[in-house]
Design brief:
The protein is α/β, with parallel strands linked by helices. 26% of the residues lie in helices and 31% in strands. A hairpin with a 3-residue loop joins strand 5 and strand 6.
């Protein structure tokens, strides 16, 4: 049984979305792409990708046709099984010949099921509502933050607003020349 990894791209002041609910603050992919080698290392242990419906739409619009020469993580994203937690989506196409599997019902139970279904890790990218539910249920084993050198001042935190104090232990911290910092925490006490 693998771990559940939640990874978020956040501003230095802890926001995963700006005040308008957007992610334009990390459109400058150069910051994020500096960590591609680290992302590939992490993805080598991942067996499945789980997304919420909103993040799935963003991923499905970009990653199926992303050029691996410019986006090295496009290959594992393309090859890994993908799951979407949604009660509203009827289908989840991924490119022209593939699709993600839709998981209906209780999101936490669905991710628990995947955790037992795969021997490798299960990663949740973005997907703030799904991540909130997993954090509340203490189902996150690893929390990875890709912290960008920008301040937003306000927006949507990467944690649920009703979350109580939780102590994490730092596993690793890596900094990159453009100011990106990748922090990885053990989220289980």
């Amino acid at each position: 049984m693998g771990k559940v990894i939640v990874e978020q791209i956040v501003s230095l002041d802890g926001y995963a979305e700006d005040a308008a609910g957007g992610i334009d603050f990390f459109v400058n992919a150069n910051w994020v792409n500096e960590a591609d080698t680290e992302q590939l290392r992490m993805l080598s242990g991942v067996a499945a990708i789980v997304l919420g419906a909103k993040t799935y739409r963003m991923f499905a619009d970009y990653w199926p046709s992303a050029d691996p020469a410019a986006e090295p993580i496009a290959i594992p994203i393309r090859e890994l099984p993908k799951f979407v937690v949604s009660s509203a989506l009827e289908s989840a196409p991924w490119g022209t010949n593939d699709s993600a599997e839709i998981l209906r019902g209780d999101a936490v139970a669905a991710v628990r099921g995947l955790r037992h279904r795969f021997s490798g890790d299960v990663i949740v990218w973005g997907s703030l509502s799904l991540s909130d539910a997993l954090l509340r249920a203490d189902e996150v084993d690893v929390l990875r933050l890709r912290v960008l050198p920008v301040l937003l001042g306000r927006g949507r935190s990467f944690t649920p607003s009703d979350m109580s104090l939780r102590r994490l232990s730092l596993v690793s911290a890596q900094s990159f020349t453009g100011g990106l910092v990748v922090l990885e925490y053990n989220a289980k006490s």
